[in-house]
From TrEMBL:
Keyword Signal among record annotations: yes
Signal peptide: 1-26
Name the UniProt record assigns to this protein: Uncharacterized protein
Keyword annotations from UniProtKB, A to Z: Signal
Protein source organism: Pyramimonas obovata
Length: 260
């Protein structure tokens, strides 16, 4: 899932990032600062300093969740895989579910299926009617309520830390926002759930799945990937994103230009 904060009349470029297969394996790995959500919500001076260093030198940091929140996250991804899977086959449903699902074929042959939603003013917006009506999507719809709230709370916690680290946001032509927290609370928060599948044929291992690119918004919240056998609706034994097993991973460009 990706969750992008877009304030009214105000956008900013983010770090460059890519999703690669074996074609990016030459880049070095780095350790990313990780903070529990509970500490981000009530940060100490040390946490604020570590967050500042992470966003200044790397461009991102990781937030760990409590047991209940982590369970809700896993149930959401499990439910999303079930929602888009074709019954009894190792594939994805045909059609676009009356416009609820967008399919794109990437340069390496990977197929990306996306469902868009939004949380505005911290109020989650409804999913498309066709998705709500599909019985296989019931777990996803139910589990994602709490998960979307967790993501929203993460964004609001980070915005509060930004208020303590930086000056107030600039005014724009639609009104004055005296803090990042106020801006985020009034923002349109775009959410996207993605499912990537690789067909057994026509897959080019020399191409990155997603080329290096930047996104726009005040900031973006992303979750780690989870691997599934769609025919069994069972998580791959390696579980979450494991570049060593799958031959790829998530890459970004640091402020000094190095790709890691």
């Amino acid at each position: 899932m990706t969750h992008r904060i877009r304030a009214p009349g105000r956008v900013a470029a983010l770090v460059l990032f890519a999703l690669c297969s074996a074609s990016c394996s030459a880049y070095r790995s780095i350790d990313v600062y990780t903070v529990p959500l509970s500490q981000l919500q009530e940060p100490t001076t040390e946490v604020r300093e570590n967050v500042f260093e992470a966003i200044s030198k790397v461009g991102l940091f990781m937030v760990s969740l409590g047991e209940d929140e982590s369970q809700g996250f896993q149930e959401t991804l499990d439910g999303f895989a079930a929602c888009l899977s074709a019954d009894g086959t190792d594939g994805v449903i045909e059609g676009d579910m009356d416009g609820a699902v967008r399919r794109v074929v990437l340069d390496d042959g990977t197929e990306k299926y996306s469902v868009a939603s939004a949380t505005n003013h911290s109020v989650p917006q409804s999913y498309p009617e066709a998705l709500l009506a599909r019985p296989q999507c019931s777990q996803f719809v139910s589990a994602s309520r709490g998960f979307r709230d967790t993501v929203d709370r993460t964004g609001r916690a980070f915005s509060s830390v930004l208020d303590e680290l930086t000056d107030s946001p600039s005014a724009h032509d639609q009104g004055d926002f005296d803090s990042f927290s106020n801006t985020v609370s009034e923002a349109e928060s775009l959410e996207h759930f993605h499912l990537f599948t690789r067909p057994r044929i026509n897959w080019d291992n020399s191409q990155p799945t997603l080329h290096m690119h930047s996104d726009v918004g005040m900031f973006i919240i992303m979750t780690p990937a989870k691997y599934f056998h769609l025919s069994q609706l069972k998580a791959h034994e390696s579980g979450f994103n494991s570049p060593g097993v799958h031959g790829g991973g998530f890459y970004l460009e640091l402020p000094d230009g190095e790709i890691v």
